[in-house]
Amino acid sequence: MNIEIANRLVELRKKNGYSQEELAEKLGLSRQAVSKWERAESSPDTDNLICLAKLYNVSLDELLNSDETIDEIAENVKEKKENNKVIISLCDDDEDDEDDIDDEDDKNIPKWEIIISSCIALVCLLVFLILGFSFEWGWRVGWVSFLLIPVIPSIFSSFRKKRFTEFLYPVFVTFIFLLVGMAFGIWHPTWIVFVTIPLFYSIFGPIDKMNKNEDKPKTKRIKIEKDE
Asked: From residue 13, how far is each of 24, 34, 52, 79 by CA, in Å?
């Protein structure tokens, strides 16, 4: 599939309000298959093309229309065969699929989440300035509020990606330790909160891994390497 058709598939999907995951579910495929179509790494088969045309309410001609001539298409196919060395091996999709999912999630961050994250940064700055100008100890303690700038958005990310370990727990623990220590002078036994960090990851790390494996289809793929 050429990049022109791949871009058209992206436009039609977004125009009809589908995410890659939602489209894949309607077609009975994995999200990675849809992602590869839209990156021009693979092509839908005939049945899937018909389903896409009906789903988007367009004809197959509109779906596959390209400015390339037959000669150009044939030449592209010939060049790919000449310039590519194909090495076939069975391997797990785990690493590449995880990267694909993370990339897609990062691209689909809701606007409200971005707005709230920006507001949090401004609020932390205001808190720092207000404490600094209002109290003698304000400059010394107020800067700790900046640690919340990455922490709170990580909560949203944790819910969006359904992963406990997306939450920046070590930064949150550091915030608590510094806040209590600087504001009240209780450094001991507040330091014990750091002991909870390995506990957090030892408990929720396996849970995240188990949930990821349950959501991922157990398939094998053909690995194709290009000989530059």
From this structure: 11, 10, 9, 30
CB 16 within 8 A of CB 55: yes
Domain boundaries, the chain: 3-83, 111-215
Query: Is the separation of the CB atoms in 166 and 158 below 8 Å?
Result: yes
Residue type, 183: A
Q: 34, 24 in Cβ contact below 8 A?
A: yes
Structure tokens belonging to residue 48: 């899937």
Q: Which CA distances in Å does 150 have to 130, 146, 156, 198?
A: 21, 8, 11, 20
pLDDT tens across 5-49, in order? 888 888 888 988 889 988 988 888 888 888 888 888 888 888 888
Residue-wise pLDDT for 115-127, tens only, equals: 998 999 999 999 9
Candidates 3.40.50.720, 1.25.10.10, 1.10.260.40, 3.30.70.270; correct CATH number of 3-83? 1.10.260.40
